[in-house]
User: Fold these one by one.
Assistant:
Number 1:
Amino acid sequence: MKNFAKRLISILMVVIMMAGISVNAFAADNTTAKALQFNKDGKFRIMHVTDTHLDVDNVDASVWLIAQACDKEKPDLVVVTGDNVQNEDDAAKTKNYIDKLMSVFQERNIPTAVTFGNHDSEVGAMSREDLMAYYNTYSCSVSLDDGPAISGCGTYNIPVISSDGSKVKFNVWVFDSNDYDGNGHYGNVKADQVEWYKQKSDELKAANGGEVVYSLAFQHIIVPEVYDALKKADGKQLFSFEHIINKGEYYMFDPNGINFGTLNETPCSGYENDGQFDAMVEKGDVLAMFTGHDHTNAFGVKHKGIDIVNSLSTRYNGDAFSSQYGYRILDIDENDTSKYTSRVEHWYDMFTVKDIDTLRKSGDDYGWKLALDVTFKGFFQKYFDLACRQIVSVFSGRQITYAD
Ligand SMILES: [Fe+2]
């Protein structure tokens, strides 16, 4: 009987310890969001939405298109990486635009992670903290205010646990890349945020039996190391772009590098560099980092094992130019989290003639006219753009566009 009691106590202690480890591993605090989970089929899909710049002219069209994208893609997580509302000096209007955006995700019960860009709190009607508190009035928001100890607001991670619920299988980093430095140049992820990342990365690894937990990272502003992965052009050329810091230097895709998508404008990184990219290389857990900020850039370059990727602005202003905008989809499979797949979807490719007719027949008067508008205007934008690239490729002998 004594032995039986001893054995029972031992078993109970092990159970309590395991429960403790398990709860601890998935615990939420002000820098780690409540864990999400791979689907039963072992898949996890992220939609990258950025630079919606919602204002009175584009909010309804942009939000309607984002809703269509959600219905089509059925993401498990939406990450919204800043410049979400256009410089708005009125808190009531800002909240109204946030309501329209967040309602899309709330109605579909899609977990949504938000961080900020250089414009969100620029005018000052709402601080980053006020904005984050408002986003978090929506229960679909998994966003976090990291608190005053960490620079900016909106730096946190989201663990993704395996479909069987046994362990953290993947991780999503969200960084606030801040707005501007002291000289008015674009912001960057600060040294204390980098320290937070390194520590959290080590914790995830330790809780995973010493194995790296692979991850994707999201933030508004690209890292300056993007230029190290591009090739310095011999003077100014078509589809080469001036370095944001070193004026007079022009950069383009390196034909010997690993490139994808299209580079359409200068990557506008911060001038300051507090070592975020180097820290990610050192930790070896980040497969790719995704940014917005440069609205027409939909490209990626591999550098020191990490894909540095920019996504298009996710808004529609009712003109041909913005018909090229859209969103990015990332898919991860829990059976091999050391890789991911990525694709860009442009508004102008979203609807077939049949889709538009189905919308018309459904009585969605606003929707079918908008779908027709973006498809019609986009037709010319798409083929004009393709023709330009073809001509430049033929005459320069350079590859201008790579597969997504
Ligand atoms: Fe922007």
Number 2:
Amino acid sequence: MTDLCEIVLDAIRAEIESMKFYEKLAAATKNFLLRDKLAFLASEENSHKRTLHKLLRDIAPEKTEGYENRIAGILAEEFKEPFEGTVSDLLFKAADFEKRSSDFYREKAKLFEKEGQKMIFFYLSVLEDEHYAILMKQYGFYKENEKFEDYNEFIHLGP
Ligand SMILES: [Fe+2]
Ligand SMILES: [Fe+2]
């Protein structure tokens, strides 16, 4: 029998990882336009995490308590600091992670028998697809304009 609880824990782990990654990248970014975009992605991952937490409570209330400890300390290799590479490299890595997250949700959705639970996973798949699209747009721009990350002169220009 499929352990749905473990699947949801895996998903929560991935959401926490990507949230932390976007938060750190946002903090390291000089350009506030990019920073806002990354902060937006971090806040979305946080809301995915909250959704999954509710789902976990639905599936296995006894496993909800202290679940953060069970999934702590496991970071995907690509999200370990120090971050190497240019902004466009990091955006591409993040986009790739989003693609895999979307695939994960779409694939695992099939394992849920309850319609509501299945739909949550399908919907998360769509949301991660959106992140992929956002990041690939950003990647396309920064690949051609790597220096824009350093362009923060207008930050000091008040109204
Ligand atoms: Fe997410
Ligand atoms: Fe995402």
